[in-house]
Design a protein that fits this description.
Layout: H1 5-21, E1 25-28, E2 44-48, E3 51-60, E4 66-68, H2 70-83, E5 86-93, E6 97-102, E7 107-108, E8 114-116, H3 125-132
Parallel strand pairs: 3-5
Antiparallel strand pairs: 1-2, 2-3, 4-8, 5-6, 7-8
């Protein structure tokens, strides 16, 4: 499913605002301009407490796969490698909020591109936050 650029930009801005409210420094990557064809620029980069998160932002619906071009996934992988960041596919599900997927969740299509079969199964923002910045301590810490 293809979405107009304005809708995609709104989704990217929405996610940047959410991440900013959670204490991240977040910036959207420009989608056009000099050099974009020669190097990959992610949709969004967020930094917090020394962690770098790199996002490709997609929109979708519960129960429908989300497709990604191989160039997007390979570019995201390379940007993540160069920055030392963690790469995620962030999916804005209509009426369901955001879900976050690691690249390992992607499946290859027959055409050599990628898809998320069940975008609704990704982490919610609070789960992503807990995975990155645990607020609870493991019981073993208190054992002698």
């Amino acid at each position: 499913m293809s979405y107009p650029k304005a809708k995609a930009s709104r989704a990217e801005n929405e996610l940047a605002t959410i991440l900013w409210s959670l204490g991240y420094a977040a910036v959207r990557g420009p989608s056009s301009g000099g050099g974009v064809k020669r190097r990959f620029q992610p949709d969004l980069v967020a930094l917090k407490e020394g962690k770098i998160l790199v996002f490709e932002v997609k929109m979708g619906r519960e129960g429908e796969p989300v497709y990604l071009e191989s160039s997007q996934v390979l570019g995201l992988t390379e940007f993540s490698r160069r920055s030392g960041g963690l790469a995620f596919i962030a999916v804005r599900l209509r009426g369901e909020g955001w879900r976050f997927h690691s690249l390992e969740r992607l499946e290859t299509t027959r055409g050599g591109n990628f898809k998320l079969e069940r975008p609704e199964s990704g982490l919610k923002i609070r789960d992503l936050e807990e995975a990155l910045f645990p607020k609870t301590e493991k019981l073993s810490k208190f054992m002698v």
